[in-house]
Amino acid sequence: MEKEQNIMFEDYKEDRKKKRWHNDRSSRQILDERHIEYEILDAGLSHYRVGDFNFWGTTGKFYNQKTGQKGRGIFNLLRIIGG
């Protein structure tokens, strides 16, 4: 029983990893389609600079160091930056 649970958990972790990278690709595609410039800060962590915001494509989290404003989701970020 424990071995089956371990296998299920490993499958779950792998599915979540795939989903995170799918989110990253989708976020970059949305930015590209809307012609919004972004800088890749760390591709391995899917960390980008979009305007004044740090944005992580795998989780959708964003943060503005200057204002402390933070949130989640590419569409919420676009609404804030006017994209």
Structural class: alpha+beta
Average per-residue pLDDT, rounded, comes to: 92
- Number of H- or I-type helical stretches: 2
Categorize the overall geometry: elongated
Multimeric status of the protein: single chain
**What level of helicity do the residues show?**
40-55%
Brief account:
The chain is an alpha+beta fold. Helices cover 48% and strands 23% of the residues. It is elongated and about 50 Å long.
Essential attributes:
23% strand; five-stranded antiparallel β-sheet; single chain; alpha+beta; 2 helices
Please explain how this structure is put together.
By secondary structure, the protein is of the alpha+beta class. The radius of gyration is 16 Å and the shape is elongated. A five-stranded antiparallel β-sheet has the order 1-2-3-4-5, with helices on one face. The chain has one domain. The relative contact order is 0.14. It has two helices and five strands; from the N terminus they run H-E-E-E-E-E-H.
Question: Can you lay out the helices and strands and say which pair or pack?
Answer:
Blueprint: H1 2-33, E1 39-42, E2 47-50, E3 53-56, E4 61-64, E5 70-72, H2 74-81
Antiparallel strand pairs: 1-2, 2-3, 3-4, 4-5
